[in-house]
């Protein structure tokens, strides 16, 4: 099943079940965030990156670590 399919299924759930799905998604995102120490280490690696592709990966990882998936 695709994400679009899952979203469509969620739209048809009763409100109480939708609330459980929302809470699950929030908990999952919170678990995937990284610590401040890890963010600093990534920022330092980003600052030292010589390759633009490598720098882009560090920026993406910092964004994901700060905001979650």
In words, what does this structure look like?
By secondary structure, this protein is mostly helical. The protein has 2 domains: 1-31, no CATH class; 34-69. The chain has 4 helices and no strands. Helix 3 runs antiparallel to helix 4. The protein is elongated, with a radius of gyration of 17 Å. It starts with a helix and ends with a helix. The mean pLDDT is 87.
Largest sheet: none
Name the quaternary structure.
Answer: single chain
| H/I helix tally | 4
Beta percentage is under 5%
Portion of residues within helices: over 70%
Number of domains: 2
What is the string of helix and strand elements?
Answer: HHHH
**Class computed from helices, strands and strand pairing:** mainly alpha
Question: Which shape, going by the Cα principal axes?
Answer: elongated
Compute the CA-based radius of gyration: 17 Å
| Number of E strands | 0
Low-confidence sequence ranges = none
pLDDT average, as an integer?
87
**Intertermini distance:** 19 Å
Quick overview:
With 69 residues, this protein is mainly alpha-helical. It is built from four helices and no strands.
Based on the model shown, name its key terms:
2 domains, elongated, mainly alpha
List the helices and strands and how they pair.
Blueprint: H1 3-11, H2 15-31, H3 36-48, H4 52-67
Helix pairs in contact: 3-4
